[in-house]
């Protein structure tokens, strides 16, 4: 065989690449998963509605069983021995006696926290934290917030209101109480947020209110009823 002799070479064809097998999900599996999800959602909705209805039933039963009456509050006494505004700086000395009446004969009231804020023309000038206490059935409790010190008033019209009321001989002061209380009715406990809003008109102290030592605190003559509002909770 000569060295220029040609040899025929056969090439085998290359097979095509293997494609990944497609996964087929049955329609039955999809339907089952959707059914389980829908059932869970409806079960949760029914449970929520059941709990709400039970709470409403319990509240209704307790209302007719105990027939709770609203607590009442009155300003029994107040003294303003100093109320002197210099620019925006107010020097004050205010004491009050607030009577809180529990008219219920089956419900006692636990006062877990009581705070008092004193405001003039919408601007807060005093703050006091009062002792916690328990109020028995059909009883009256006297709380005595004491506001004494100095602070800045905000608002453009405060000075004008002060001068106008000073000429008239009285100041209109608002005292707001915020209390967290508990009421127990049988095995159920109820938490209540209570707000008491008292507005009083106090005469200008003798001596102009410029010096607490020289001023004579005016006598508070008129018993004033306060507004009481509630927000109820269950736990």
From TrEMBL:
<feature type="domain" description="Late embryogenesis abundant protein LEA-2 subgroup">
    <location>
        <begin position="98"/>
        <end position="200"/>
    </location>
</feature>
<dbReference type="InterPro" id="IPR004864">
    <property type="entry name" value="LEA_2"/>
</dbReference>
<feature type="transmembrane region" description="Helical">
    <location>
        <begin position="44"/>
        <end position="66"/>
    </location>
</feature>
<dbReference type="InterPro" id="IPR044839">
    <property type="entry name" value="NDR1-like"/>
</dbReference>
<dbReference type="GO" id="GO:0005886">
    <property type="term" value="C:plasma membrane"/>
</dbReference>
<keyword id="KW-0472">Membrane</keyword>
<keyword id="KW-1133">Transmembrane helix</keyword>
<keyword id="KW-0812">Transmembrane</keyword>
<dbReference type="Pfam" id="PF03168">
    <property type="entry name" value="LEA_2"/>
</dbReference>
<protein>
    <recommendedName>
        <fullName>Late embryogenesis abundant protein LEA-2 subgroup domain-containing protein</fullName>
    </recommendedName>
</protein>
<dbReference type="GO" id="GO:0098542">
    <property type="term" value="P:defense response to other organism"/>
</dbReference>
<dbReference type="GO" id="GO:0009506">
    <property type="term" value="C:plasmodesma"/>
</dbReference>
